[in-house]
Design brief:
Blueprint: E1 15-17, E2 20-22, E3 40-43, E4 46-49, H1 50-57, E5 73-75, E6 78-80, E7 99-101, E8 104-106, H2 108-117
């Protein structure tokens, strides 16, 4: 059996992943080149460790600019951590409903007040 990375013969332990065989030390993240020893994901047929996959291909929160792992909210063409979608004026979380005003999320109270001043 031949390793998909180095093409050397695999005699001992083998990693069977992505429909290929690898030496354990050859099964590495395509971005950071660190050995993958637990969870991984694939993009375009290449293995990535979870942190690199999130960094390269994940969504980033519009509010804090950090990668989003887990639940996310898509609003006004942007992505947010659930607690980071807040009213533009009063900063109260609005994930259960908001009014868009000039491309920003507003709670109903602040949207009403903004409408009066427009």
């Amino acid at each position: 059996m031949q390793c998909s990375m180095c093409h050397g013969v695999i005699d001992g332990r083998v990693v069977d992943a992505i429909q290929q065989k690898w030496h354990p030390q050859c099964f590495i993240c395509d971005f950071c080149r660190a050995p993958i020893v637990s969870q991984y994901s694939t993009k375009y047929g290449r293995p990535y460790c979870v942190p690199c996959e999130r960094r390269l291909y994940g969504n980033y929160c519009e509010a804090c600019h950090q990668p989003i792992a887990g639940q996310q909210i898509s609003a006004i063409g942007r992505f947010y951590h659930p607690n980071h979608l807040v009213c533009f004026v009063c900063k109260v979380p609005v994930q259960n409903g908001f009014v868009e005003h000039n491309g920003k999320p507003f709670c109903s109270t602040c949207a009403h007040n903004a409408g009066k001043s427009s």
